[in-house]
Amino acid sequence: MRTKQILTTAIAAPLLILGLAACSSSTTTKKCSGNTCEVTVKTNGSAKTKIFKYDLRVSELKDDSVKVSYRGDSKTLKEGETATLGRVTVLVKDADPGEAELTVSR
Predict the structure, then answer these.
(1) Which residues form the signal peptide (predicted)?
(2) What does each C-alpha distance from 106 to 27, 32, 83, 85 come to in angstroms?
């Protein structure tokens, strides 16, 4: 009986990890020109990308709001809202569940 439990656990654990990885997939694209970057994030969890040498983290993508973190500052911004985080200004152009479009400038 014990061998069956170990075998079941050995098979189930990797499948669970693969399933969780699939649930938290993300895609981030960015296009920078001069002091401005256009960032599009698609995720059902959180995602990060380097902007001006530092990590920009995007999470909690909801209808009309998104949480943005940069250089130790973090704010939840509504669609159309602008905020200063660290030494950059972040504009949320569009926010939907699982997807957001941002403009980051310095």
Answers:
(1) 1-24
(2) 23, 11, 12, 10
Query: Tens digits of per-residue pLDDT, 14-45?
Result: 544 444 444 568 899 999 999 999 999 999 99
Q: How far apart are CA 87 and CA 36, in angstroms?
A: 12
Domain boundaries, the chain: 26-105
Q: Which two tokens stand for residue 84?
A: 């200063």
Q: What totals of helices (H) and strands (E) does the chain contain, helices first? A: 1, 9
Q: Which two tokens stand for residue 76?
A: 């939840």
Q: Please tell me the pTM assigned to this model.
A: 0.76
Per-residue pLDDT tens digits for 74-96:
999 999 999 999 999 999 999 99
- CA 65 – CA 100 distance, rounded (Å): 9
